[in-house]
């Protein structure tokens, strides 16, 4: 999900190492054992840790009206810190929230620590939820032995391209979404359109926001990402393709070089500093929040290369909590179709339950902010038949290492060729930590 900042803090390394060491103890460790059954019976407040836009704020009043004895304490935070802190809390045996969001980039790591989480399969109605989900989404949160599911899925990151209609019109480019999508069947064609746009603005405006936001969607479209299923690094495959495509946007001068999730990048949505960006479904909410006065100026077209999944999250319940039953009641409730449909309509997150995609209100829904784009139809189409990559236990550490060097290229501190060699060394080191 999400808004979803994809940078990993250095603290993750120490926390992850401690987490893996703790894993060696199996179910006899401090966080292990069978699913706890003790729970408070009086009024409780559930602490929920997450980042970005999950739609919780919009649903809080409805939940508390229907569940007067279970209040919600929403605790949004930084993407990486939310999950780094969770690792530390699990090892310490205390401090974890009642409910925590986990991103797909961390799910492999945490599912290998399944003894620290409540098993969905042991909870009332938990086993029955499997039929609701995309098979690969359900499998992502399952332990290797298939005996534990550590959390219920929320969204997936079906991809498209969000673009400014008004800026395209000024540059003499088509503005209708079907015509725009037809401009760029491939990433090379996309870059050529970018050159036309920059030329039409007299070089005063750039086409895209940031190289990293080209690298990630291109990588997601490759058969294999950073790791194969045996946890072997595969840098010269998909990552090299993504690197070459992203750095070409820099060499051709079409990137605004605004570091993703920086204050400058966020301001760029309203200022028109760029005209288009890769747009997983969860990005819609961030655009609306960043540039509320640009309603109707944005639209959504297909992504070059077609498909790919970038992002998606889960809701899990740490075993150390004292409100297990109430936490499960919330997680089970918020991931039901009516709530997931409401979240889709309010913040844009694409549900990971395909039955929702056939709901007529989902099919008919149009997003006014994005020129009444039929967001349900657009993003569901990108998700059909999707088979996401295996991400690996060290996915985030490797991604962070490569993206840091990619940013150095963007800042002119190294060139794409030397940068790739540096990125490989940094990624290999990160994978060994």
Describe the protein in words.
It is a single chain. The protein is of the alpha+beta class and 433 residues long. It folds into 2 domains: 202 residues, D-Maltodextrin-Binding Protein, domain 2 (3-Layer(aba) Sandwich), CATH 3.40.190.10; 197 residues, 3-Layer(aba) Sandwich (D-Maltodextrin-Binding Protein, domain 2), CATH 3.40.190. The protein is built from 19 helices and 8 strands. Strands 1, 2, 3, 4, 5, 6, 7 and 8 form an 8-stranded mixed beta sheet that branches. The protein is globular and about 65 Å long. The two termini are 27 Å apart. 51% of the residues are buried.
Summarize the structure in short.
Helix content is 44%, strand content 12%.
CATH class term of the largest domain: Alpha Beta
Q: What count of structural domains?
A: 2
Number of helical segments?
19
Total DSSP E strands: 8
- Written as H for each helix and E for each strand, in order along the chain, the element string is HEHEHEHHEHHHHHHEHEEHHEHHHHH
Can you tell me the CATH architecture of the largest domain?
3-Layer(aba) Sandwich
CATH superfamily of the largest domain: Periplasmic binding protein-like II
Mind describing the biggest β-sheet? 8 strands, mixed
> At the third CATH level, what is the topology name of the largest domain?
D-Maltodextrin-Binding Protein, domain 2
* Portion in helices: 40-55%
Percent strand equals 5-15%
Q: What is the radius of gyration?
A: 21 Å
- Structural classification: alpha+beta
How confident overall, as mean pLDDT? 90
Which shape, going by the Cα principal axes?
A: globular
The span between the termini is 27 Å
Low-confidence runs (pLDDT<50, min 5 residues)?
2-35
């Amino acid at each position: 999900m999400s808004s979803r900042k994809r940078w990993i803090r250095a603290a993750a390394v120490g926390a992850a190492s401690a987490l893996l060491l703790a894993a060696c103890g199996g179910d006899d460790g401090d966080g292990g054992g069978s699913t706890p059954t003790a729970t408070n019976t009086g009024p409780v407040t559930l602490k929920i840790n997450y980042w970005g836009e999950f739609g919780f704020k919009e649903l809080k009043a409805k939940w508390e009206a229907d569940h007067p004895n279970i209040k919600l304490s929403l605790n949004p935070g930084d993407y990486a810190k939310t999950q780094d802190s969770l690792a530390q809390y699990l090892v310490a045996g205390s401090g974890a929230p009642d409910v925590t969001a986990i991103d797909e980039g961390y799910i492999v790591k945490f599912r290998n620590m399944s003894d620290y989480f409540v098993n969905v399969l042991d909870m009332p109605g938990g086993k029955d939820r499997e039929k609701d989900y995309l098979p690969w989404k359900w499998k992502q949160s399952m332990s290797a032995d298939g005996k534990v599911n550590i959390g219920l899925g929320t969204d997936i990151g079906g991809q498209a391209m969000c673009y400014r209609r008004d800026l395209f019109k000024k540059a003499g480019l088509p503005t209708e979404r079907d015509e725009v999508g037809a401009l760029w069947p491939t990433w090379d064609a996309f870059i050529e359109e970018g050159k036309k746009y920059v030329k039409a603005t007299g070089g005063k405006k750039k086409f895209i926001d940031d190289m990293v936001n080209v690298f990630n969607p291109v990588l997601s479209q490759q058969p294999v990402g950073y790791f194969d299923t045996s946890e072997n690094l595969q840098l010269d495959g998909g990552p090299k393709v993504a690197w070459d495509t992203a750095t070409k946007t820099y060499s051709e001068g079409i990137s605004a070089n605004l570091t993703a999730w920086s204050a400058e990048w966020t301001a760029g949505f309203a200022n028109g500093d760029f005209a288009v960006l890769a747009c997983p479904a969860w990005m819609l909410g961030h655009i609306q929040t960043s540039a509320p006065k640009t309603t109707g100026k944005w639209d959504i077209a297909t992504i070059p290369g077609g498909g790919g999944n970038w992002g998606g999250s889960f809701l899990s319940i740490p075993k150390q909590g004292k409100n297990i039953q109430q936490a499960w009641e919330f997680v089970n409730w918020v991931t039901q179709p009516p709530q997931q449909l409401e979240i889709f309509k309010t913040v844009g997150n694409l549900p990971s339950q395909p039955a929702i995609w056939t709901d007529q209100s989902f099919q008919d829904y149009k997003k006014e902010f994005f020129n009444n784009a039929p967001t349900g139809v657009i993003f569901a189409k990108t998700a059909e038949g999707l088979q996401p990559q295996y991400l690996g236990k060290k996915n985030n550490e490797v991604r962070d290492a490569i993206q840091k060097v990619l940013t150095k290229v963007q800042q002119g501190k190294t060139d794409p060729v030397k940068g790739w060699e540096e990125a490989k060394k940094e990624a290999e080191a990160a994978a060994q930590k």
